[in-house]
Write a structure and sequence with these properties.
Number of strands: 9
Shape: globular
Largest sheet: 7 strands, mixed
Strand content: 5-15%
Order of helices and strands: HHHHHHHHHEEHHHHHHEEHEHEHEHEHE
Radius of gyration: 27 Å
Number of helices: 20
Number of domains: 3
Structural class: mainly alpha
């Protein structure tokens, strides 16, 4: 007798499963009401610690539910009878529902512990999307259990399954929008897909002959033409619509002045009391320092310009001609702003390794192509830059020399690289020799030796190097004195001696060497 031919009276009914499943679903729905508004400052560290696992855990239910849908489609369109719900195992659905609950709880803790999510409509929608998906996953499992127990028609269970996956898709899209911006998935969509999604077609590239001429120094608006591009490059990625950390947006002048959870963003006439400057001036190891660790620091000429603008009233209408501009500020502006036609310097010649205006289609496609092997690891420095950041935070022990070699084609575009706690060795670091724009590299807790330092010496743009917990010695570290732009060097838990540090400091007086706190 086949399994589906077993009389209903002989099948055990999933009453216990139903009770505990509904109890769990009710608990998920009740969490936001019981916890109240998010307030990261009052949350204990354990909440934030667990919450930060959400980006890792969320991939489990996504993968499992996609597999279940494929299995069900195989049954529906295969040779087997459409009504045989038992043809697919119960365990994948149980695991999918259970992993969804765990991912949702971690996401809820991340929301509660993060100041940047409070009051963020997109983050709140993502939170509720995840909660609804978690409940739908539980109900799908319960309905399948009853369908199997009663040998019933699987149509309703399958409808609920497909609905759950649809909800999962919407919630996942919102999550990607929070992390990468609301147009992350559609930025490079072809016009037919954009039309299907109800979006405007891409604007055709403007004819260069019709482009607006470069403004002369006297007509440049200080905010719009000089300060705003600096903020766009360094800050707006994390302080914009859909992703406003600390409830602070910097993508418009009005919102920049208004500020966020910590008060006004700036105080006209007082740069030392302006929040954006206070954060920038903090020591790099301070957790409140901006930009945060992993993001390229705002450069000294850029800081000088923003401070000067604030101290002179932070007006968004005045041009350079309205000010008596000090020589130091003129020099700083010349380094980052194109000169007028016929001038002596442009943005391309002011710095030896200035970034192009933005990624071309080939480079964008290449970066997107690595998403499968390096999920979430590669991003462009900004929308206007063709330089790429790489972080192995989600890969860790899975990244070795062989895997890193796959990135050889885009290595010259790398501007920051975080390889901490991976399996890479000196061989992988040798690949970075072509990354002439590299400003920050983290090699903490890897197997690199002094041989890696020989590669780093070929990268004169380097500003920050983290060698914490590696096997480097005095012989290798002493060579770093040849890097003229080095500003920070992390050396704690290495074999480097105080004498070698002192000698290096004498040769690089502007470099901050961090040795950690003595135990």
């Amino acid at each position: 007798m086949a399994d589906n031919d077993i009389p209903i009276t002989r099948r055990s009914k999933p009453w216990a499963l139903t009770f505990f499943g509904l109890l769990t679903a009710g608990g998920l729905v009740a969490m936001p009401f019981l916890a109240g508004p998010a307030n990261g400052e009052e949350m204990p560290d354990i909440v934030r610690f667990i919450g930060h696992f959400h980006p890792v855990l969320l991939h489990l239910p996504i993968g499992v539910f996609v597999l279940i849908v494929l299995q069900e489609l195989g049954v529906i369109f295969g040779r087997r009878h459409h009504g045989q719900v038992a043809d697919t195992s119960m365990f994948p659905l149980f695991f999918g529902a259970a992993s969804a609950v765990v991912a949702v709880i971690a996401g809820f803790l991340l929301f509660q512990g993060g100041d940047e999510y409070a009051g963020n409509a997109l983050a709140e929608r993502h939170l509720w999307g995840g909660l609804i998906f978690g409940v739908a996953a539980i109900l799908t499992f319960i309905f399948k259990a009853w369908t199997v127990a009663l040998s019933g028609n699987p149509a309703f269970y399958r409808s609920l399954l497909f609905a759950s996956v649809s909800i999962m898709g919407f919630a996942s899209h919102d999550g990607a929008s929070i992390t990468h911006g609301e147009n992350y998935l559609t930025q490079y969509a072809p016009d037919p897909i954009r039309v299907l999604l109800g979006l405007e077609k891409k604007k055709q590239k403007e004819d260069k002959s019709d482009a607006a001429p470069v403004k002369t120094p006297g007509t440049q608006l200080v905010y719009a033409d000089i300060v705003a591009p600096i903020l766009e490059k360094r800050c707006v990625q994390c302080h914009k619509e859909g992703k406003s950390k600390g409830k602070f947006r910097m993508d418009t002048y009005e919102l920049l002045v208004k500020g966020g959870a910590e008060g006004p963003g700036l105080v006209p006439g007082k740069s030392a009391e302006s929040n954006i400057i206070v954060r920038v001036d903090l020591r790099p190891e301070d957790e409140d320092h901006m930009p945060p660790e992993g993001k390229p620091d705002i450069e000294d000429p850029e800081v000088a310009i923003v401070k000067w603008w604030i101290d002179n009233g932070a007006d968004n209408k005045k041009s350079l001609a309205d000010f008596d501009v000090p020589a130091a500020i003129k020099e700083a502006i010349a380094k980052i702003v194109p000169a007028a036609p016929g001038g002596t310097k442009t943005a391309e010649t002011a710095a030896p390794h200035a970034a192009p205006k933005g990624p071309d289609q080939a480079l964008a496609a290449a970066v997107a192509g690595f998403a499968k092997d390096f999920p979430g690891a590669l991003n462009f420095e900004s929308q206007q830059s063709s330089l790429v950041t790489f972080t192995a935070v989600s890969l860790r022990g899975n990244l070795d020399d062989v895997a890193f070699k796959k990135l050889a084609s885009i290595t010259p575009q790398l501007v920051t690289v975080d390889l901490s706690a991976t399996k890479i060795t000196d061989q992988a670091v040798a690949q970075l020799a072509s990354a002439k724009n590299l400003r920050l590299v983290r090699l903490a807790e890897t197997g690199i030796t002094d041989a890696a330092i020989n590669t780093l010496l070929k990268l004169p743009a380097l500003e920050s190097i983290n060698l914490y917990g590696t096997k480097v010695t005095d012989a290798g570290v002493s060579k770093l004195s040849a890097l003229p732009n080095l500003k920070r060097l992390y050396l704690w838990q290495t074999a480097v001696t105080p004498e070698a540090v002192k000698a290096l400091k004498a040769k690089l007086p502007s470099c901050e060497i961090i040795l950690g706190v003595a135990s």
